[in-house]
Records
---
Amino acid sequence: MNTELDNYSHKRFNILTGEWILVSPHRAKRPWQGQNETVNNEKRPSYDENCYLCPGNTRINGEINPDYKDVYIFTNDFASLQSDSPDFEVNDGLLMAKSEKGICKVICFSPDHSKSLADMEPIDIKKVVNAWQKEYKELGANELINYVQIFENKGAVMGCSNPHPHGQIWSQSTLPNEVVKKNTQQLNYYKKNGTSILGDYLTQELDKKERIIFENDAFVVLVPFWAVWPFEAMIVPKTHQINILELNDTEAFLYAEAISKLTKAYDKIFNTSFPYSSGIHQAPTNGEDNNHWHWHMSFYPPLLRSATVKKFMVGYEMFGSPQRDITAEKAAKMIRDLV
């Protein structure tokens, strides 16, 4: 890698969104006198009688959770999207609005309140992967749904309101903004080259090995060249797959292993339960030919220098473009050394 990228400000291009990010490696040396987050490393019990996600407990709507033993999924009691929303449209000059329908679900990864994905074994994470596959297939088959977004917010600093290991699935009738960007970029590349842009990118990364964190027979875990968040990472299948339904049983386990390796390494960086938002981007379920898609899972952790110092997206990042101090290569090495 050009050593100038390690020492001087520059921009990097995100091939998936068509946007640029500013990188300022020299700023990592500046002293920090800003806000420090409160870190809670208190050991949680395996069962919390006050947790509305624990087995056997009553949720706010009066429903009682079953005594589940592994993965449990239910329709979100406070869903952001409504399946019964009426069709309507506002088109008043520059004032435009459209109705949006959808289905939102909560997925509990484990009945054990004390765990996170980093504490679970790959064989148990595979059950989560299989549940994601089932929900993607069933929700995507609904004529109302054209996109299924699977994601997890981990940690209070990411706005997670309950520490019980869980994620969410929001499915909706239109494609959300980030998906539209990635759909466009991947489609344009596929039309021009006849290959997957992520597949070709992966070939280049595996050759250079500068940002690779971990790989097995089916997956690569890396810090993308254009990463925005300090310890951002991406899990990418080595073969061109448009969605997680293409995973066979062995690949589903290897995907679970990749998740396990990354999340365990995250927790070692600052010796804390590492917060992040993660999400799977994959082909829309709109019935179109989406062979240009190459599905992937991204992790966006906010911590910057320690367990208490986080990255804020403010100022220039709000009015100009995203910016980072630590380079993708340095971050990749730090994580890789902990895998």
---
Amino acid sequence: MTGAVRTGLRGAAWLLPAAVVLIALNLRGPIVATAPVIGDVRADLGLTASIAGLLTTIPVLCFALATPFASWVIAKADPERAVSLSLVVVLAGTVVRSLPSSVALLVGTAIIGIGITIGNVVIPVVIRRDTSPERVGLVTGVYTSALNVGSMVTSLGTAPIAAVWGWPVAIAIWGVLAVLAGIGWTYTVGARAAWRRPVAVEPVVETGPIDQVLGTGSIRAVDGGAGTTPVRPARRLITWGLTLAFGGQAFSYYALTAWIPTLLHDEIGFSKESSGASSSVFQILAVVGALGVPLLATRWRPRAIIGLVAFLWLAMPLGLLFAPQLWLLWSVLGGAAQGGGITVIFIVIVRIVSSDADARRMSAFVQGGGYLLGSAGPLVAGSLHGATGDWTAPLLVVLVAVLTLGVVGTISARRVD
């Protein structure tokens, strides 16, 4: 018989990925928008180096600390409204941050972090719900690729705009991306009515003790796992494993993102300008990993992909430690690995959840704990460099984080083989 109706977007193959790309451009780019003009910002507002460093640390801390709030918002509203709210909050934070005040700068950054956190949690839920199983990996790869494209575009475009109109305009203008994403998402949600898909529901006659609970001839939806209550994420061993793996990925990424320009300046003698441009290789190569992993996922087991990602990731700290002059090669391998790392973890999450609510809880738990670990990356690496005077200790810590991703992630992914 035909009963419940699925209101996803599976009938429009291109619509959801296009909307996801527009949204993802707003979920990393705002974090790096101030970096190219931080000198001008410090000069105008009289910021210390420590306060300036908070402009990168605050959003990552929000990813961890605001994740329970984001999960609550998604539960109280629906995913459609949560995505819209995420974009509105990011836009509001972008406007506030552009005001010529140190307080507004920090408050706006925190608002942006909260908005991005909501988006971080809800987008995997939307992808899982509205994408056919055979395309989940591809759409996830498109999503993570767009995250890195957003960072690259913002990094490259902010300084030239500031040279013409000043830094407040240069960091405010990226709010246009939030407006465009809002328009695209509104159109996508509006198109749902045209793509309603019936879901087969079959009568199930239960006997014995289960029948006493559900009732003879009770109706349960075949699609979506109705009638079952998923185990809470904190009570599942795989959740803790994925959280540690995600934490290893995030710690390595943010530690290297923060300090690669300085490392290249110290070890190779690059100018500060050249070091900053060279580090963009590490960012843009993530697109290769983000799109490559879904293709591998059609033939390889997730644990094998995580093993490959970790192997490539190791080239970055080891290469910079023993042969920094080959930084371009290590950046290519490490960049592809970091894009693939976050993608394969999201794919594993999508495969193990049993419902939209389960996806929301699992995504929030893994990202909240993982980003909490990741937020320590820049601080730990910088502190070790300051204490030792060289880059050996920071790179060894990144090496341990990458090994955590590989070992714990491989063991955890065995559940979905």
---
Amino acid sequence: MPTDRMWDAGPAEVALSVLAAWKVPDGEVKRLTERAAVTAGSYGASYEQLGAVWGIIRHGAREKWPDAVSRPAFVTAGRSTVALFGGTAELVRSSFGGWSWTGRGADGASGAAADGAPYAAAEEVAAHAG
């Protein structure tokens, strides 16, 4: 309808128009919340934790974001070394799947991952070690 007659529509048509306007942001919010849940899950959050922040039970979170938390699998612990700009870092994968690092720079300074802050992926721990 033209702007000067937009409120001439019946209440149902006006309400439906408002509802239609909310469709796009609703879809975007769903996409962003799923992305946040998957990111939290990749860093070790459980379905119980996801549900708690969303105000639902663990089972509800699992149904809402079925791929957010991967089931723990047996992970082989391992080590690898990265050499970069004259320094070296040892990347360590624990048996629970998290990564940490220790290293020595070309200037002799040493460093290590902060205690209690395992990294989720080898690429991430390598970036922090660098």
